[in-house]
Amino acid sequence: MRTSVLSIGLALGLFLFAAADAGAQDANPSPPVLTHERTTALMERVITNVIQPGYRDFSEKTGLLSDRMMQLCTVPSANNLAQAQAAFSEAAKSWARIEIVRVGPVLEKNRFERILFYPDKKGLGFRQVQALLSSSDETATAPDTLSSKSVAVQGLGALEFVLYGTGSDQLTAQTKSYRCRYGLAIAGNVQHIAMELVQAWDDPDGLSKDWKNPGPQSSAFRQDQEAVTEVLGILVHAAEALRDQRIESFYKSGSSQSFPKQALFWRSGLTFPMMRENLEGLRQLVHGSGIKELLKPSQIWIVNSIDVYFKSLITLAQDIDADLEAAVSKPQQKAKLDAMLSDSRDLISLFNDDLGQALGLTTGFSFSDGD
pTM here? Predict the structure, then answer.
């Protein structure tokens, strides 16, 4: 059961949205006409309002992270460690906003996993990072050679352990320690990947051109419907990842067991901030793309309802105890986790079923769980 005020507010909000448009929905059941002009405008906004600025921000934040790691390695101190950790937090949250876009160049050359290898249910990455730190393998201290190693040791997950895990006190005790130089190489590696993604999406004759111009000449989308389907797929799969990989990786409703140390970034306290930024990224895509412009007036309730769930989920993620042990053991905290799972399922349904049908996608087709 969720907190009563939140439950009442969410239910009332959805009721009012639905009730206001019920008659119109019945009178206008057919989807709007998907014109080429509307589709190209949608894809233009997706690129210019969401994808390009998202990767640019990530590149900027990883650049700052590299600078702070260099400063820490050169002049180790508690203050410089705190600055490096703050820069890590900003880079990680920037990634959370744009990682919802699990298509395109980020899926090439294992870039997605190289930036963040997660989930890691068997602890493979953790053990590999520990092995590197134990062996002091110098090939892991340069971005060029680090990039050829396992994806598990070259991204943000590995850097979190360097900055917050067992032995991180070494970072303030020795100038240019192996641990710090390894962390610096990780930051440089992720920065390089971020720059590659910026270049790929900013190339005026590259992928962005094909995304903005669906049709026979496009290598991305041969038809307008394919382009709209891609955008909707991003929304659905990102919402599923929030439920499956960010929450259910450590907590499942009704289960007698929970695994707080399997949560993403539990050491740094960023588990729930990452969820909030995932949701902010989704909200930016919904509004920045102007997907509402493709709907009939009688269908606007769908986007309004989606906004209600965004607000509920973000509020819940802000309110849950950052201490994962407490979050999965205290009844009031568990109720909020249960509410997040419930709301995320409803959000997926709104994207997959209601918005999909409103956009006129093929009846019976489902994005959910890769179908």
Answer: 0.91
C-alpha distance across the termini of the chain, in Å: 30
Tens of pLDDT along 172-213?
999 999 999 999 999 999 999 999 999 999 999 999 999 999
Distance CA 297, CA 292 (A): 9
Nearest to 25, CA basis, from 371, 352, 295? 295
Domain that holds residue 105: 43-207
> What's the CA gap between 224 and 47, in Å, rounded?
16
Both 20 and 116 in a single domain? no
Residues 62 and 201 in one domain: yes
Residues 6+ apart with CB under 8 A from 138: none
Please check whether residues 173 and 51 belong to one and the same domain. yes
Closest CA to 342 of 226, 206, 196, 242: 242
**The two three-digit tokens of residue 79, written as one number:** 């203050």
Residues 107 and 234 in one domain: no
Q: Is residue 294 part of a domain?
A: yes
pLDDT in tens, 271-313: 999 999 999 999 999 999 999 999 999 999 999 999 999 999 9
Question: Token pair for residue 148?
Answer: 């050829």
Long-range contacts of 348-351 (CB under 8 A, 24+ apart): 348/236, 348/239, 348/240, 348/243, 350/302, 350/305, 350/306, 350/309, 351/232, 351/235, 351/236, 351/239, 351/306
Query: How long a stretch of residues is the chain?
Result: 371
User: How many domains are contained in the chain?
Assistant: 2
Buried b (16+ CB within 10 A) or exposed e, 40-67: bbbbbbbbebbbbbbbbbbbbbbbbbbb
